[in-house]
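User: Hi! Is it possible to get a structure for several chains at once, not just one? Here's what I have:
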Amino acid sequence: MEDKIKDLSEKIIKLLEEVKIQEIKEIIDNLYPTEFTEVTDYLPVEQTIKIFKLIKDDERIAELLSELSSELQASIMEALGKEKASDILEEMDTDDAADFLGDIAPHESRKLLDLMPKEEAEGIKELLKYEENTAGSIMNNEFVSLPEDLTAEEAINKIRELSPEAELIYYIYIVDIREKLIGVISLRDLIMANPKAKISEFMEEDVVSVLDTEDQESVAKKMADYDFLALPVTEKRGILLGIITVDDIIDIMQEEVTEDIHKMVGSSEAYEDKLIKASPLTRAKARLPWLFVCMAGEMISGSVIKFHSDTLQAVMAMAFFIPIIMAMGGNVGAQSSTIAVRGLATGQLRVDELWYNIWTETKVGSLIGIITGIIIALVALVWQDNYVLGLVIGLSLCLTMITAATVGTLLPLIFTKIKIDPAISAGPFITTIVDVGSLLIYFGLGTFLFKILG
Amino acid sequence: MEDKIKDLSEKIIKLLEEVKIQEIKEIIDNLYPTEFTEVTDYLPVEQTIKIFKLIKDDERIAELLSELSSELQASIMEALGKEKASDILEEMDTDDAADFLGDIAPHESRKLLDLMPKEEAEGIKELLKYEENTAGSIMNNEFVSLPEDLTAEEAINKIRELSPEAELIYYIYIVDIREKLIGVISLRDLIMANPKAKISEFMEEDVVSVLDTEDQESVAKKMADYDFLALPVTEKRGILLGIITVDDIIDIMQEEVTEDIHKMVGSSEAYEDKLIKASPLTRAKARLPWLFVCMAGEMISGSVIKFHSDTLQAVMAMAFFIPIIMAMGGNVGAQSSTIAVRGLATGQLRVDELWYNIWTETKVGSLIGIITGIIIALVALVWQDNYVLGLVIGLSLCLTMITAATVGTLLPLIFTKIKIDPAISAGPFITTIVDVGSLLIYFGLGTFLFKILG
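Assistant: Yes, the chains can be modeled jointly so their relative placement is included. Here is the combined structure:
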């Protein structure tokens, strides 16, 4: 698809130069929003603005705009002028409109809200109040809710009336007079039902919903577990506030995974998904904190070596195996912690299986340790012709593998227990700890064994 | 929720002991499939089988069974007997039935298929032909397709007739007489339409579909980009074969991410999602190949140190900084490659921006290098009171950071170009390369500078 989009972009640039308005319009009309977004990746901002000025339909503008980056949205809205911008905001889904208004300067967003019809503006202001990453901040209010005393036929007619406003009407929520959520029916069931049947008779009363203050990660997990297309959001007394749709959740799942993966290698969480497009300075800043931790930790590793200088002076070959000990320990530690972190994130690993999991990983580490330990001992024997050194490096590597696998699994589980994001434990943190530990083992054993055997 | 499920499981175990059939039935009736799955996590297999024997409705059994692990499914089906098993398979979605039959022994699955009605069996056999991870292997045939000459009203009536078989009827696909896909309408649009209008007049003709041979990862990307609830699957001439629903895609996205993350730390791809539940031997086997690569690489690192033994003998303090050089290089390399790999997976990073991305990362590496290089030089000066050593370690760390960041970004992009999964490049592979490089820089610079300045 990438090539198709690139060709299309070049064609559009050419048509813009030749001012062939009608042809551009036709191309844009036939694009899905996601395709249009990819096209804009290849266009200078001014060209994208020109295109938006060609589109007359506010709803179509809103649809295309929603998928663009917030910077691009801001440039386009500014170029279109405040009046037009507020018209477009009206046509956007409330969650997208709130996202946009939350990203621009507060006084700008107030001006735009003032230009909008009061009811629409209130709806968006409600969403803006929510903290980031809560269900409230990602919900939209384009849902259909009906009272329970309607018949199926009346309900369908009512939906026909209301629908242009509803983002997703595949579920219809049933509320009582205080707007409390008491049931749900799918559009499918409504159509299949006897037209004269009351909806209260066939609605599902055990509604799975989320709280407005709930974390978006837990919303995503519920959506994935229950296989719903949308989840209703209520406040704590059960009043229906909005819905979160599955397509928004897919985006959030991707963001959360990216955030987790970046954390696992020790990139600060503050930059998240946008890290890849950030300036070098921003990117360096996101990564430095953990590198400092790593530096401090490795100073301890250095001190361990310094402490055993005499051994090293006597057996210089000890130095040749420092890379293997460190790299192998770091890798196994990273493997074990990453597998644990991902297991916790997907729910495949339960914290209450703590000891069982650690014990299994210890066994894995022992297996790996015995195999690699024997190999490296033989290598050392052949390479350096020193059987004590072979014994030292072989034993050390084996013990390092066991330590790395055990600690690598233990840390994410402990972090989870004390309510710190376990992803943090998987990066520089674990490798640094394992480095110090492995060098302690290696030089400790070396000093000891060379003393009694050398 | 976890606690609620645990309590529930204990209650069920107690009720099973007391043979309170009716009460157990009531509890199970009120559970969603995902909740039931979690309950079975706490139950011995025999108890789960007992519960399944209590449920009379084959459709409900099929629904609950679909969410369980394939091992558990097999045990239950065996306990229920072949006749019952084939009845249940009939009620399962074709994709779930095919998944189950693909996992058990071929002669067992043939026996079960023979017991099923011919048409159902044929549908499942079609799916079983597809290679794993293709669109064909994850599609199901519970879709609604209609000819284009119906009116909206006729279409709705037709759907009322067909529906019990359809997993997702929110999209209705329009096909010509040869079953070729020519349009799509949503159930919503159908209900909103004038009952007398022909569906050919308001159907969307530009249908986004996927090929049966397409990789599931690309299907997931399309679903996420276009925000659809289902995608139609066709063979290369455009004949409609099945649909893939968004809930299946969410599961696949999670699997793919887990697979990627495991690959990033060098766990073989063969074990994927199930790694966390595998035996220690299986887990060790999945991780050993890359550890061997790492060992071989670090032998080179060791040789670099050996080659510079004289320098090390003269300035023993050089050894104290090996951990910092190696750990910092490894971490920055892992950061850069992970950010690149994730960027490529989400589509935020394009291969055609190769040189621009590498140049940006080089700048990031330089910034990090200058800052950390100055700090470590000062530390070395104070700690070891040796200004040449300060210069050597400071310069080396700076150069290592630049190399690590650049190579860390370059490798995933090259891997993508030559069609190897870039996730492989992010783990032990990159850290080993960077280790060798950083020690070459460190000891090369050290030997040189101590010769001319020492």
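Strands of chain B lie at 145-147, 171-175, 181-186, 210-211, 230-234, 240-245. Chain B has 22 helices and six strands.

User: Great, thank you!
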